[in-house]
Amino acid sequence: VTKLPKIDGGRLWSAHMAMAEVGRIPGDGVCRLAASDEDKAGRDLFARWCEEAGLSIRVDKIGNMFARRAGRDESKPPVLIGSHLDSQPTGGRFDGAFGVLSGLEIVRTLNDAGIETEIPIEIVNWTNEEGCRFQPSSLGAEVAAGHISLEVGFGAKDEHGVSLAEALDRIGYRGDAEIAFTASAYLEGHIEQGPILEEHGDAVGIVYGAMGINAYTVTLIGREAHTGTTPVTHRKDALYGAAQCIAKVRALAMEFEPNGRATVARLLIEPNARSVVASKAVFTTDCRHQSPAELDEMSRRLKQIVEEVSAECGLGYTMTPYWTVPPRTFDSDCVEALQEAASALGLKHRRMVSGAGHDAIPVSAVVPTAMIFVPSKDGVSHHVSEYTAPEHLEAGCNVLFQAAVKLAGLATSARHHA
Ligand SMILES: [Zn+2]
Question: What is the distance in angstroms between the CA of the first residue and the CA of the last residue of the chain?
């Protein structure tokens, strides 16, 4: 077994800090909205670094960038490593950038050590992951995976009516490569955006899947009544019903920790007047779980909560599905490669699922995929104060490096003659 070198943690940190200068905003944050001038500058910098590393770059029609390091066997689909360089309007320096810049650091390390891999390695920067300028999120990856047509992707409009196609044209990143994406494996490194790794003192999360989501809109129908003259026993109080539901949904969530979530996040009431019992309450609720069976069970219990509370409070109700995302289980070989790498490097790690959306989720439908998470200080993301320590970026990148080389294989003279 060849002993692999380690990645250069200082160089990886410098790349993050240089990228963070692009679209820099007060408080150490960045604003690189998809297909904006700042996104173009980030893409240009990434492209320059890739060219300096001897990579060949292609940009597909939806603006996804692929930077390729040739392998000994060019007939095989590459091992793909990446994430996204776009950000939220008041985003941080690490969300997305970590996955792309890790890919770059891996290639630089291979170059320095003169290591040839059996199959090619490509770094990818997916278009419009954040979904704040153009909906939906992970649009570039969704189009590449064939879930959304190119026409629909092009037609996505920002709040000023500018389409993604126009925006990409304007910055020169509507590429000419076909949407014909293939890879042997896809590895994505990302900040956790949650508190779990930090809380447990883990260096790396080995992400084996992503939560599915069942989201609903619930309407409770009661009756307006005077708050002074109507005894409680004679009321049909939609707000009281909503309060009962909120408390029970929270209890449900507690029961399904740590891999399940259930939430009521939005509530509107009518008439919302000081002296009138509420006649109507509309709230959103969703449950999330990585296991399809558990997700079904959570949905069943959510419906039961709404039904029982409505009956107890004398309310009518409707419960309408709003959004459904199936749970994902990532590829076991890719997960294994990442976990073995973390063990071999002596890093404290844990297996976990993603509760957030990532490019890896659509990609996992068409290519063997897995992710790692690195710790987020105080669990903060999508905020200028987002922070991951240099040693955590370095550790995560080493895990990606070892796993990527394992999946790509080392080109050996023995194989040449085999
Ligand atoms: Zn991200």
Answer: 18
Rounded to the nearest whole angstrom, what is the distance from the C-alpha of residue 416 to the centroid of ligand 1? 40
**How far does the centroid of ligand 1 lie from the alpha carbon of residue 365, in Å?**
18
Between the CA of 34 and the centroid of ligand 1 the distance, in Å, is: 12
Q: What is the pTM of this model?
A: 0.91
Distance CA 408, CA 406 (A): 6
Question: In sequence order, what are the residues at sequence separation of 6 or more whose Cβ sits closer than 8 angstroms to the Cβ of residue 167?
Answer: 34, 35, 36, 133, 134, 158
pLDDT tens-place string over residues 91-115 = 999 999 999 999 999 999 999 999 9
Residue 174 Cα, ligand 1 centroid: separation in angstroms?
A: 22
Q: Which tokens go with 348?
A: 């404290």
pLDDT per position as a tens digit, 240-293 = 999 999 999 999 999 999 889 999 999 999 999 999 999 999 999 999 999 999
Cα separation values, 261 from 63, 264, 354, 359, Å: 34, 10, 11, 21
Span from the CA of 342 to the centroid of ligand 1 (angstroms) = 22
Evaluate the omega torsion of the peptide bond into residue 26 and state whether it is cis, within 30 degrees of 0: no
318 CA → ligand 1 middle, Å: 35
Residues in the chain: 418
CA of 277 to the centre of ligand 1 (A): 43
